Amino acid sequence: MSIENIKVPDLGDASEVEVIELLVSVGQSVAENDSLLVLESDKAAMEIPAPMAGVVKSISVNLGDLVSSGSEILSLEVAGDGDTKAEEAEESSQHSKSALAPETDGKGVAAAGTAEPLADPDSSSGQVEKSATTLATTSATTSATTSATIEVPDLGTDDEIEVIEVHVKAGDEVAINDSLITLESDKAAMDVPAPQAGIIESVLVAVGDKVKTGTPFVQLLSSGPLEVSGSESESESESKVVTNVVEPAPKQVAAQADSPGAQTKAESEDNNAAVIEQRSGVYAGPAVRKLARELGVNLQLVLASGAKSRIIKEDIHAYVKNRINAPMAESAAGASIPDIDFSQFGEIEQLSRSKLHKLTAVNMHRNWSTIPHVAQFNEADITDLEDFREELKPEAARKGIKLTFMPFLLKACAKALLEHPQFNVSLHSSGEYVIQKKYVHIGIAVATEAGLVVPVIRNVDQKTIWQLAEEVIELSEKARERKLKREDMQGACFTISSLGAIGGTGFIPIINAPEVAILGVSKTDIKPVYRDGGFVPRKMLPFTLSYDHRAVNGVDGGQFATYLAKLLTDVRHLSL
């Protein structure tokens, strides 16, 4: 056994780079080419691979340290032939550098046949093929005006989505990350950015078109290396070469550091990083991407916990674990009722559902299937509150405000959430903890012709009845006119669904995850209530509190409903 000190390879023009991730620990066994750590400059990130197999004996750097070429990273305990392997690794690196630096014809274009294949007798055919691919890639990334077809990036689904806006036209000059088009699915809208700078040659789609992952939508004229994974190429092999640029092997990235080819090391890393970012919209290194491919994980769905939102191996493992342990909601959703030809029974008409209706259906099914609902029924005597509201109507008219019952209900719910903070939480997907919210934002369900929407009123506890009355009317009108923005419907802690104007004696509302409770309000009814030795007519408001039994106990639900009824019965409690 021998101890080998592993050092940072030649970084070219970069003087000092930051250690942003340590991928190994002391005592851990690593194989050759396993990633040891991740370095990041102001242009790109790169993983440093192990040049040989061994056991990590010590680590010389910490997160946040600045290192340069030749800085010691860690020490490995290797078998007796460690020195030989180190020499072979260095020799292989030199061969890679030779392959990356072909002779040129004086115009910056690499001459064919100038790179020698790897002479290492132990090299596999895959290594030789990788070197040839590297040579082809270097030749392809020389400065030249290129026409590239930009395709829709991975959307995480095979469904078609609609183009709702086109931001460019033929002849426009765009910079990298400039928005080209906007797509809208049932869940959200997203801008598709330019993966590289250039001039728009032609736009291949129009507003209203349906596209999906891989659909070409823009023809781009650019100078410099082709960075678009989906661009058209003259042959299938060239297309494969471009794909190889997306995820370069760690050895190739390290060997590129000193390449005297058409591009500098910094430019090459920057291009590779840009391709990785733009191809999938996630920030992850080659080793992590390889693990994701092996496990069949879509990186778009993985939450990043690494530095600067980088996905690390632990994130992949956590995602797989959560999927394995998750409820069978998706399986249940996939089990649909067989279609029937209803035309055999009489005349029919097929009516398309709006995006909003379909999205609501999906969300309601998911929430009902995955959340253990408990419903707490109660009613509040709002006779005095309604009398007080009637007294305020002249003042409301002078202010030009329509004073409904909703502002009082909002205020009461906000006070109840402050009194019972266990209702103002969200469960983490791991189930290990809850997120306690220190703000009180409440959503109000509004029915529109297109479907149900839930605008959110923020900081309800800090606003007056008059302020809430104005905001309720404003948001309700925006909802019916379909002018709500995305931020108008985000961030709610609790939701109120009122069917008071429609009727009914009660209903069980479905919780709007990730909230843990929702209030369903029905129509006020005049009932005989026994008071002071006799029955008197009182205005009674029936309501139902639905809550997530994973986060809230039955006792808490009962106390919340009772406290809310108390606030609505005697409006003076709202001022305490």
Largest sheet at a glance? Answer: 7 strands, mixed
Corresponding CATH architecture of the largest domain: 2-Layer Sandwich
CATH class of the largest domain: Alpha Beta
Determine the structural class based on helices, strands and strand pairing. Answer: alpha+beta
Helix content: 25-40%
Written account of the structure:
It is a single chain. This protein is α+β, with helices and mostly antiparallel strands. It folds into three domains: 2-124 and 131-140, RNA polymerase II/Efflux pump adaptor protein, barrel-sandwich hybrid domain (OB fold (Dihydrolipoamide Acetyltransferase, E2P), Beta Barrel), CATH 2.40.50.100; 141-317, Beta Barrel (OB fold (Dihydrolipoamide Acetyltransferase, E2P)), CATH 2.40.50.100; 355-575, Chloramphenicol Acetyltransferase (2-Layer Sandwich), CATH 3.30.559. It is 31% helix and 24% strand. It has 13 helices and 27 strands. The chain has helices spanning 82-100, 125-140, 236-246, 250-255, 265-280, 286-295, 313-325, 329-334, 355-370, 383-399, 406-419, 465-480, 554-569; strands at 2-7, 17-22, 29-30, 35-40, 45-49, 54-59, 66-67, 72-78, 145-151, 161-166, 173-174, 179-184, 189-193, 198-203, 210-211, 216-223, 373-381, 425-427, 434-436, 442-444, 446-447, 452-453, 456-457, 494-498, 517-521, 525-531, 534-548. Strands 17, 20, 23, 24, 25, 26 and 27 form a seven-stranded mixed sheet that branches. Helix 2 (125-140) crosses helix 3 (236-246), helix 11 packs across helix 12 (465-480) and helix 11 (406-419) packs across helix 13 (554-569). The longest helix has 19 residues, at 82-100. Residues 82-143, 225-280 and 328-334 have low confidence and may be disordered.
